[in-house]
Structures are given as C-alpha cells and as structure tokens.
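Pilot study result, target chain (280 residues):
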Amino acid sequence: MAPRANWKGYLRLSLVSCPIALYPASSLSEKVSFNRINRKTGNRLKQQNVDSETGEEVPREDIARGYEIGKGQYLIVEDDELEAVQVESTRTIEIDQFVPRNEIDDRYIDSPYYIAPDGQVGQDAFAVIRETIGKMNMVALGRVVLTRREHVIALEPRGRGLLGMTLRYPYEVRDEQPYFEDIPELKLPKDMLDLASHIVSNKSGHFDPSHFDDRYENALVDLLKKKQAGEKIAPARGAPPPRVVNLMDALRASIDVEKKKAPAPSTQARRPAKKRASQK
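Predicted structure:
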C-alpha cells in the first residue's frame, strides 16, 4: 500500500490538467532513533514551551508565530494571515518550462517525490504529460507549495509515474569560490597521474545502491542487541592518524595492495529495522 500523500492537487500542461498525488520518495523511518529520558527514573522526557523571560509554561492556545524585527522584538503573524498568502502552486503544479536534465546543477537538487494520478479521472491526461516529457528527453519545471513554502520542482518519467525533485533557490546554494580560492593550481607529473588512473580503473564499476552498507546504522543495531543481552560494551579504540608518506610511494603501494586483494563479495546493505534491536 502506498504511503499517505504529502500533497494533492493538479498537474497542468497548458490546457491539459489532471488530479495528482505527491508522495515522498525517501524515508528515515527505518533509522535507529533515540528518545530523551530521565536517567534516574527511566521515564521519557516531554518538551515544554516556556516563556524565556517569566519561565512559565505557555499553553498551546497562546503560542503564536513571530518574526524577529529587532532585538527582543517580534512581529506576530497569525495562521489565517499566512493562509492569505496564496499562490497558484498551492493547488496546481503548472509546467512552465522544459530543460535538459544535465543542465541542472546537482547542488540545486533537494528532495525526491513520486507523483501518481489521484483516482481514475485524468489518467489519460497524466499519461499524455508523462509520455510527452519522456519523448522530449528533458525534464519539466513547475512550482509546488509544500509546508507553506513554494518550491521549484523538476519532473521526469519514472516507470508509469513521475519523479519530482524539488530544487533549491539560488540564495540557498553557496558559491564555491570562497572554499576553493586558496587551493593552488599544480602541474602534476604524468607518471603520477598514470598510477592514480590505474588505481581508479581497478576500482571502477557501476552504480548499484543495493551494495551500500550503512555501517554506522548496523553498528548501532548491534550495540542495542548487546545492551539488551546484558553484554558489556567495550570503549572504542581511536584510529591512528594516517602517516605522511611520499605521494609516489603511496600510489605504487596502493597498486600492490589492490593486486593482492581478492574480488570483494557483493555487500548487501542490511536493513536496520528498529524491530531487530528489540528481538531477543
């Protein structure tokens, strides 16, 4: 069963429109999560909204949303006032433009979503829009409002549906220049580059996310199992710092190490479900 939709509305290409539902394409629910507890009682802690000046707890009906306009001065904005800020993308994703996929800088890609028809009405229109985008071998750009914010969203075919990727605005993406400007421009020897290229060739393969192994998540699951079994947890040993060696020697040694390595078996990522940590 598909998860609950994050957004429902319409997808429109010129005069062609259809009802759609938008679902998150990623999830963090399988990751190990922790609650804050009272060490003495073992009870879970509750968060309270406390007035920063009086120290008194504030009831839910008195909690408002404020924008800081000066030190200690806030402009209160009510929910109905935010609702008044309606833009067309609140209920409709209007396709404004088609662009080549390779022109979208990866820094602008934010979150992925699956987009499917919402109900039986408009299935043909959805298929027409999907096939048109795929035939052009481009992505469609539109806008959508999620959690009260308008996002640019790029649409491309994915199976019988669409994959939508929300994009960051230019003001959200940092310029790389301040981070890279102090890196010197070096002329590297050919034999050094040849050695490095040989190492890269030996390690080359194809992208397969099923080989990803979340080692930290798996280590957390193992830790929880040991804790439940009453085992003592040994403190971690600090890894020794890497030795500074001659670059050419390091490259040659790396090639020798790769030659000695047997082909690594496929590492299937273990699904770190929370339930496993509670199994006995």
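One observation from the pilot: The chain has seven helices and ten strands. A full batch analysis is planned for the follow-on phase.
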